[in-house]
């Protein structure tokens, strides 16, 4: 997994640098728009650190894209088939949140992401990360407490939840097993 994490950190760093350069932004401008320090952005762009999900969400939102889109742009080469061994896998170093991008690169507005959230772990995303998408969560196994704004949805295996209007969200795996779930995102 370390080689995968290093490869993805490097790819993410390159993609973030490319997105920033395409917009003509300095590190300071991206730092201001994302609320991530210039020093942290520099180490991410150089592939010297594996950023957390929270940092990547803020960076992606500054670019006007989702975390899924940012990671997909960093890792996917195009084509209609994305074999399991080629699917980008990313682990949040802070929580152990493991995210596998299932969808091949395409012009379709649909993205499929499989997530494993370790028992006891939580990951939070600001409303801005949902501004450009609609999504549904299908719990494959384990339990998942999903907080959407002020509402907590307690999901069990087989449950499917369609998210409402963008709001701050927290995914929490209460245990005793990891929560495995599929996220279907539609851009637009």
Topology:
Layout: H1 2-22, H2 27-34, H3 38-45, H4 53-62, H5 67-75, E1 89-91, E2 98-101, E3 110-117, E4 122-125, E5 133-141, E6 143-148, E7 151-156, E8 160-162, E9 169-172, E10 179-187
Antiparallel strand pairs: 1-2, 2-3, 3-10, 4-9, 5-8, 5-10, 6-7, 6-9
Helix pairs in contact: 1-5, 2-4
Indicate the percent of residues in helices: 25-40%
- Read across the widest sheet, the strand sequence of neighbours is 1-2-3-10-5-8
Give the helices and strands as they follow along the chain.
Answer: HHHHHEEEEEEEEEE
Give the overall average pLDDT: 87
What percentage of amino acids are in beta strands? 25-35%
Distance between the termini: 33 Å
The low-confidence parts are 1-6
Secondary structure category: alpha+beta
Largest beta-sheet characterization: 6 strands, antiparallel
- Radius of gyration, in Å, reads 16 Å
Beta-strand segment tally: 10
Question: What gross morphology would you assign?
Answer: globular
**Number of helical segments with 4 or more residues:** 5
């Amino acid at each position: 997994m370390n080689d995968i994490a290093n490869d993805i950190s490097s790819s993410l760093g390159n993609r973030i640098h490319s997105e920033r350069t395409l917009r003509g932004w300095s590190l300071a401008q991206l730092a201001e728009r994302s609320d991530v320090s210039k020093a942290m952005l520099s180490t991410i762009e150089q592939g010297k650190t594996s950023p957390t999900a929270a940092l990547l969400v803020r960076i992606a939102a500054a670019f006007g894209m989702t975390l899924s889109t940012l990671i997909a742009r960093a890792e996917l080469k195009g084509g209609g088939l994305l074999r399991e061994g080629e699917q980008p896998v990313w682990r949040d170093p802070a929580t152990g949140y493991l995210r596998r991008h299932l969808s091949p690169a395409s012009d379709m507005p649909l993205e499929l992401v499989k997530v494993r959230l370790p028992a006891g772990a939580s990951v939070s995303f600001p409303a801005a990360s949902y501004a450009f998408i609609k999504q549904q969560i299908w719990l494959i196994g384990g339990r998942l407490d999903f907080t959407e704004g002020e509402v907590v949805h307690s999901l069990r295996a087989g449950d499917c939840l369609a998210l409402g209007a963008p709001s701050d969200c927290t995914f929490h795996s209460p245990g005793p097993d990891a929560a495995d779930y599929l996220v279907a995102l539609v851009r637009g």
